[in-house]
Amino acid sequence: MGPIWPSYFTDCFSLIFVVDSSNIAQISSSCILLLSVLSAEPLCRASVLILFNKRDIPCIMSLVEIKSLFRIDDIIASAPQSITTKEVSASSGQGLQEVLSWLESVTIK
Ligand SMILES: Nc1nc2c(ncn2[C@@H]2O[C@H](COP(=O)(O)OP(=O)(O)OP(=O)(O)O)[C@@H](O)[C@H]2O)c(=O)[nH]1
């Protein structure tokens, strides 16, 4: 789906990027996709929420290790956008309330 995402960038003020943090094999491609999204000119002022999803699934790597592999600190430091990260589980609902609070905080009133 990545190739068609730019069709939706115009007038986009907030963005939620979901990472499957149980799938270590996909981490680097997910990171590259995120970098391409963050460098898109129409999104340069968007508020960005990165969700590390599937935290209910036992994984051989901790979230700290996954974030390090993802180079999340470097990405946040160099991106023009305001970026928030959260760990969630779409399955159990872990973190859902925080996601809703974030959405409320970035919603244009
Ligand atoms: N345990 C668990 N399962 C989840 C979670 N989120 C999604 N899933 C399940 O994971 C399966 C695949 O969903 P996704 O990863 O969203 O789908 P996808 O991105 O098309 O899948 P891939 O391209 O194969 O990675 C579905 O059965 C979902 O119900 C979660 O937080 N925890």
UniProtKB/TrEMBL annotation:
Entries under Pfam families matching the protein: Arf (PF00025)
Residues annotated to bind GTP: N53, K54, R55, D56
Entry keywords, A to Z: GTP-binding, Nucleotide-binding
Sections of the chain in a coiled coil: none
GO molecular function, one term: GTPase activity
Record's protein name: ARF like GTPase 16
